[in-house]
Amino acid sequence: MKEYGAATNLNQINSEGVSVQVMPLQMENDLSLPNLTKLPNLLAAISLREDRNMKVYNESGEDEEVLDNRKIFLNKLGLSEKNVVGVRSMHGDNIEIVINKDCGNFICDTDGLITSQRNVYLSITVADCLPVIIFDPLKEVICLVHCGWKGLEKKIIEKAVKKITDNFNVDSNKLIGGIGPGIGRCHFDVKEDFLPRFKSYPDAIVIKDGKNYIDLKMIAKRQLEIAGIKKGNIEMSPVCTYCQSDKYFSYRKDKSSPVQAMITVAGIK
Length: 269
Ligand SMILES: [Zn+2]
What we know:
The chain has 6 helices and 18 strands. The protein is an alpha+beta fold. The longest helix is centred in the N-terminal third of the chain and has 13 residues.
């Protein structure tokens, strides 16, 4: 199979138009998924609050300052924005398969990306929503899903796994799943009339001190399992973005307008 963009991920064009090599910094991996992120052929990372806002598109259009923040963070990972595909997410369930020619673009109305090509790095933004990574390390297929309660209600994770197995001749019990930092059940309290949406996940509903909480990470894990991924192949970050809002952006805690968010990046090296 032809490899696209090989060996370009460490090259940057400087202000004089000269290609220079950017070395990846040794950085702590804040996705808090140690098994997944140690896989040698996978690059997966999340930015932090200190890296500033990564949500490029808001109500008033494209934010140039955010594009700069994004470029700086991607360079820190040893990537160029020219190797990265973004989304303009809609809290829907649309998932697109992308290839080398999609790099540098933001795919509209999409909450999940899949690729089987090396050096095509997938990206989404999250602030309380979950970044979910699905990976086949042997056949080298990767998927990154932006997953809030709306996507989970639409079973976006099950749809993502089906799209991988239908299109890439992959067996779901060989897949690895990772659920990254997001709002924990400690802080996702909802009104009682919200609960029926998730009645098929009774273990994910917690009623404590007269308040109702939903465990979105548990629902994500359930959907990975229902789609055929082995329990032992699923890793879940313990980080609640609301509890750790000094380090991560949190939509519920920050109440900022426009919304500020982290970027999650995942791709095959
Ligand atoms: Zn919390």
